[in-house]
Amino acid sequence: MTNQKKKILAISGSTRMNSSNFKILEFISKNINKEFEVEIFEDLENIPHFNPDLDTENPPEAVTQFRNKIDAAAGVVICTPEYVFSLPGSLKNALEWCVSTTVFSSKKVGLITASASGEKGHEQLGLIMTTIEAGFTDQTQLLIQGIRGKLGTDGTITDEKTLHNLVAFIRNFEEEIEELN
């Protein structure tokens, strides 16, 4: 029997190329236990606007692919900025396509909001994920305020407290996934 790696789907709430959120997900990918395989999902902008009339047995292909990636993952990490005291529209839109499904029900998730402030966006992300029955704890959530001043241009984390908190987040998330076995 082969020892297959557990898949982690990492979703950046930012559609900006090489965003701080993407850099954090890259850090997680490089620093997570080797028994995990992280896929960073970069297609939020290709998911069509949510329309309940299209949320049928045959939704748009991009939606089906997104849902299948979530379903196949042992866990999901979402790292998002806050836009105008809320979630970016593209992330909220993608999550709305999951409301009528059970893809997030009891799914282990890690929630990171990395932004200038982020408090309201983080609160809203937690509320949405609770509503769609995702499984997360205080230890698998992280709010990183003032993110731009805590990352180098190459993606290195330059703030010691942020580095410590992010490593702790990774270990806690790994433990949550391990509890499934």
Automatic annotation (TrEMBL):
PANTHER family to which the protein is assigned, alphabetical: CHROMATE REDUCTASE, NAD(P)H-DEPENDENT FMN REDUCTASE LOT6
GO cellular component, one term: cytosol
InterPro entries the UniProt entry points to: Flavoprotein-like_sf, FMN_Rdtase-like_dom, NAD(P)H-dep_reductase
One Pfam family recorded for the sequence: FMN_red
NADPH-dependent FMN reductase-like domain boundaries: 7-131
Membrane-spanning residues: none
Name the record gives this protein: NAD(P)H-dependent FMN reductase
Species per Swiss-Prot/TrEMBL record: Flavobacterium circumlabens
Source species, domain of life: Bacteria
GO molecular function: FMN binding; oxidoreductase activity
